[in-house]
Amino acid sequence: MASEDFCLPGDGMEELKQVCSKQLPPCNLSEEDLLRNPHFSRLLLRLSQQVDESGLSLTLAQEQAQAWKDVRLHKTTWLRSEILQRVIQELLVDYYVKTQDTNLTSEDKKFHETLEQRLLVTELTQLLGPRQEKEAPSLLGLEKADLLELMPPAEDFLWMRSRLPLEVEQQLKRKCFTLLCYHDPSADSDSETLKAAKMWKLAEALVSEKQQCLDTKSQQQERAVLLAKQSATYSQVLLRCLALLQRLLQEHRLKTQSELDRISAQYLEIKCSAMVLKLRMEELKILSDTYTAEKVEVHRLIRDRLEGAIRLQEQDMEKSRQVLSTYEVLGEEFDRLVKEYTQLKQATENKRWALQEFNKAYH
């Protein structure tokens, strides 16, 4: 297929869209953009033949793959030694735990003590490392020869080394069975033979599950990119819809606003009248519940009596006004007579009181 055909609709366009979505970074190019720029489309196709899916050149990708292969090889070698080191340390830890609970045989004690002694001396020897003549003396003045003297006897070491693979195998077997039961709890009740058979397939199952997780993660990333594109597209559509709605509101709202205001005013007026009538009805209901016919009759009698008493008081008040008017006509002479009458009345009261006291004292 000619390069000029890739910028036309058809298989070339589909291949170009796959190149843009997989091999090259997401550039969010539409079919219209690719058709509008045919030279750029041919450039993308030629560029895709020189790079892989990650965007690296083919030569650099091969070098990277070889480097990763070497890294995995060294990592595998290191992991093997590290696993063996940890398994030996776990054997020693289990030994010290068992010494607290059970009585171990002399062979077990000899094996673990020889193993621990050999391990400690080897680690200390490695810590010293190769020394140069001009270097400063080591810590505490120790030399490798001093540490090698602490090595266990050769016979004990050979006997321990012949037994060590079996102990390591048993420890690894227990750890593998623990891992299998964690991955498949139903295997806890199986026999050792069946567990061993399942262990051979455990690695394949873990690799399959890991690949499934990676595929799911890749699908999730693709969906996230698709979701971002759709979100951007939908956002633009929503913005256009909002602009259209705003324009429609501005054009048609002024025409209908007065009618809406009139209807709203009528509605509020009717609602207010209804509320006033409801309040009056509640007031009348309270009055009817409070004042019965008997209570109204009693209140009427009380009101009549009070009105009669008020009329009598008004009549007495009118008579008092007339008497006061008569007294006011007399003027100052009347005031002098009142004062004299008051003094005489007070003197009479005093003499009456003195006479009563005299009579009490006489009797």
The helix-and-strand class reads: mainly alpha
- Number of H- or I-type helical stretches: 10
Task: Name the shape in a single word.
Answer: elongated
User: What's the Cα radius of gyration?
Assistant: 58 Å
Helix proportion range: over 70%
Oligomer: single chain
Q: What letter string, H or E per element, gives the SSE order?
A: HHHHHHHHHH
Protein name: HAUS augmin-like complex subunit 4
Organism: Echinops telfairi (Lesser hedgehog tenrec)
InterPro entries: HAUS4 (IPR029327), HAUS4_met (IPR026214)
Pfam family, one: HAUS4
Description:
With 363 residues, the chain is mostly helical. Among the domains are: 53 residues, no CATH class; 121 residues, no CATH class; 35 residues. 82% of the residues lie in helices and 0% in strands. The chain is built from ten helices and no strands. α4 packs across α5, α4 crosses α7 and α5 packs across α7. The longest helix has 99 residues. It is elongated. It starts with 10 loop residues before the first helix and ends with a helix. The N terminus is likely disordered.
